[in-house]
Amino acid sequence: MDLALPLWFEIGSLVILTLVLVGDLLIVYKRPHVPSMREASLWVVFYVVLALLFALAMLLLADAEHAGQFLAGWLTEYSLSIDNLFVFVIIMARFSVPRKYQQEVLMVGIIIALVLRLIFILLGASLIENFSWIFYIFGAFLLYTAVHQAVAKEPDANEADNAFVKMIRRRLRISPTFDGSKIRTTVKGRRVFTPMLIVFIAIGTTDLVFALDSIPAIFGITTSPFIVFTANVFALMGLRQLYFLLGGLLERLVYLKYGIAFILFFIGVKLVSHALHTNEVAFINGGHGVGWAPEIDTWTSLGVIVVSMAVATVASLIKANRDARARGHSLGEELSLTTKE
Description:
The protein is mostly helical. The chain has twelve helices and two strands, in the order H-H-H-H-H-H-E-E-H-H-H-H-H-H. The N and C termini lie far apart (50 Å).
C-alpha cells in the first residue's frame, strides 16, 4: 500500500524528532548524571505518549492501516531495542564504565544506531523497489535469526570484546583508567586513548549487528521508508532512560529473548508468505504467485507482537519473583538493592 501522508507532515515530523533528539543530547552533555527512578520514568512515559500521539496523527491524516503499521513497527523495534540493552549492560560491566558517564555512552550508541539504521533503511527500500525476490532473503534471514536468538547462550561480560575491539586494543595505546568521558588523555606526558574509545567501538559494532536484524524485521511489517525510520526513531528515543529505569530488572527478563525470537520467526514467515503470494521468481510456480500463501494483515501482526511481548514479560516476572522468594526476599527488595548499588 502506498503511503498517503501529506509531505508537510513527513517533513515536520522529521524536524521535530531531530530537535527532540538534539535536546536530549544537550541535556546529557551539559549535565551528566545518573537519573533518578522518577526522572527516568517521566522521560520513558513522555516518549511512549509521543509515539502514541504520532500514531493518532497518522490515523487522522491517513488511515488505520498506516497507524497500525507504525504501531506494529514501533513495538517490534522497541522490543529489539530492549534486547539491545542487555548487551549494553554487559559492555558497561565489562569495561567498568562509571555510572555517571553511562548516559553519554548510551546517547552515542543511540546516535550510531540511528545513522546505521538510516543507511540500512535506504538500502532496504532500494532493494525492495528493484528486486521483489529480496523478501525471500529477508524472510530466510529472520527465520535463521529467530532460531539463533532462541538457542544461543547468554553473552558473558568477559566475552564482550569482539574481534574488531581486540584489534584496536593491539594497535592503540589505551590508558588503564577513564578520564571522565574523554576519548583522549595525557599519561606521563604522552597522549593516549582512554577506555571510553573502546566502549564506543564496542557499542557501535553491537549497533551494527542489531541493525542487521531489525531492518528486515520492520520491512516485514511495512515497506514505507518513512514509517520504518520513524518507528526506529521512536523505539530508540527514551532507550537511555529505560536503561536506568529497568536497572537490575533487565537481567531478570529471562524469557524476553524467546518472545523476541517468536516475533522474528512470525515476521520471517510473513515475509516468505508475502514473497510466495506475489512471486515473480521464474523457478517457483512458473514465475506466478502462489495462491495458497496467505497475506498476513497489519492488525494480526500487531496482535502477535503485543501478545508475544506480554507473555514473555509476565512469565519472566513470575519466575523472577519466585526465585527472589526462594532467596528469602521479594522481587521489589532485590531491585531496590540493585538500584542502590
